[in-house]
Specification:
GO cellular component, one term: cytoplasm
Shape: elongated
Strand content: 15-25%
Pfam families: Radical_SAM, RlmN_N
Enzyme class: transferase
Number of helices: 11
EC number: 2.1.1.192
CATH class of the largest domain: Alpha Beta
Structural class: alpha/beta
CATH topology of the largest domain: TIM Barrel
Number of domains: 2
Distance between the termini: 12 Å
Radius of gyration: 21 Å
Order of helices and strands: EHHHEEEEEEEHEHEHEHHEHEHEH
Keywords: 4Fe-4S, Cytoplasm, Disulfide bond, Iron, Iron-sulfur, Metal-binding, Methyltransferase, rRNA processing, S-adenosyl-L-methionine, Transferase, tRNA processing
CATH superfamily of the largest domain: Aldolase class I
Length: about 350
């Protein structure tokens, strides 16, 4: 019999679980606090619960923990990349980044990805499965345990397409922003998507205060289809309409991610098309010189051309910044995450542990 994933449950669901176990409902608030505020690692840590209840929880529930099978620290900037083994032996990667304004983490939402973007290593092996809310949370909790520091900003921009796992993403957002847990402000959370139009509209209806980041990477459909298979399903016009709907519902400025590929999408013509596309919209463009992956022949746009592209946008009233590169020496920069650390070995170990 599979045990209940207690870390993915809301406080209301915890109350129902405890009542079904013959316990008092007020225990739910205690357990929720132990899991999400105090970051308890085991049920035995929950010292204000009776021993009998702790034993019952051990028997019927699982308290998901991720095992860091590898931690790499950049010699350039202190960025850390974590390879976490999931309970089933799959591997995901997460990144810890230190800024003057606080600590940011980039977390994964799926094991692998099925979107197929040509500049991204995360999609090379396809999609294995969605991550549960507990597995998204635990990436953050484990990095906080390891560093002894608190996270202030979260980007759901690691392996996977977050809106392809929307129900679990929404529960994760509910739990990580809870005043009874980590209490991270919604405004400090960014969720990236390659442009799943129906899911953007579904997210807009929730009227959250998170930042929506669109992986755009091209100013026209023809070019975008050569870089991103999703462009065959949803046109840029459809994406822009969904973004307008998101802004109208939330008042939150849209961020557009634009990976600059040398000789592909970084010329003056592409800049002009991008300006025409975004003119008059409350948005921000994040320019990212593409990070190389060995399986693709894309080359990054060089510094002078990046600055020229940025100035062309800004001269025409489009707010644009160049993303600071962090962790390139440990393959933790944008588009470089992949699940390659002892994948098979960990799966076999998980199967043998039954």
């Amino acid at each position: 019999m599979s045990r209940t994933d207690i870390k993915s449950m809301s406080e209301e669901e915890l109350k129902e679980l405890l009542l079904s176990m013959g316990e008092k409902s007020f225990r739910a608030a205690q357990i929720f606090s132990w899991i999400h505020e105090k970051k308890a690692e085991t049920f035995d840590d929950m010292t204000n619960l009776s021993r009998a209840l702790r034993e019952k929880l051990k028997e019927e529930c699982e308290l998901i923990r991720l095992n860091a099978v590898e931690i790499q620290k950049s010699r350039l900037d202190g960025t850390r990349k974590y390879a976490f083994a999931l309970p089933d032996g799959n591997i995901i990667e997460s990144v810890w980044m230190e800024y003057k304004h606080g600590n940011s983490v980039c977390i994964s939402s799926q094991v692998g990805c099925r979107m197929g973007c040509r500049f991204c290593a995360s999609t090379l092996d396809g999609l294995e499965r969605n991550l549960r809310p507990s597995e998204m949370l635990e990436q953050i909790y484990e990095m906080e345990r390891d560093t002894g520091q608190r996270v202030s900003n979260i980007v759901v921009m690691g392996t996977g397409e977050p809106l392809d796992n929307l129900s679990n993403l929404l529960r994760f957002l509910e739990l990580i922003t809870s005043e009874k847990g980590s209490n991270i402000s919604q405004r400090n959370i960014t969720v990236s998507t390659c442009g799943l139009v129906p899911k953007i509209r579904e997210l807009a209806a929730k009227k959250l205060q998170i930042t929506l980041a669109i992986s755009l990477h091209a100013p026209n459909d023809e070019l975008r289809r050569t870089m991103m298979p999703i462009a065959k399903s949803y046109s840029i016009h459809e994406i822009m309409d969904a973004c307008d709907e998101y802004f109208a519902a939330t008042g939150r400025r849209i961020s557009f991610e634009y990976s600059l590929v040398r000789g592909v999408n970084d010329g003056e013509a592409e800049a002009r098309q991008l300006i025409a596309l975004l003119k008059g919209r409350n948005c921000h463009v994040n320019l990212i010189p593409v990070n190389p992956i060995k399986e693709r022949d894309y080359k990054e746009t060089l510094g002078q051309q990046v600055e020229k592209f940025q100035k062309q946008l800004e001269k025409n009233g489009i707010n644009a910044t160049i993303r600071r590169k962090l962790g390139t020496d440990i393959d933790s920069a944008c588009g470089q995450l992949r699940r390659r650390v002892r994948q098979e070995e960990n799966r076999k170990e998980a199967e043998s542990n039954g």
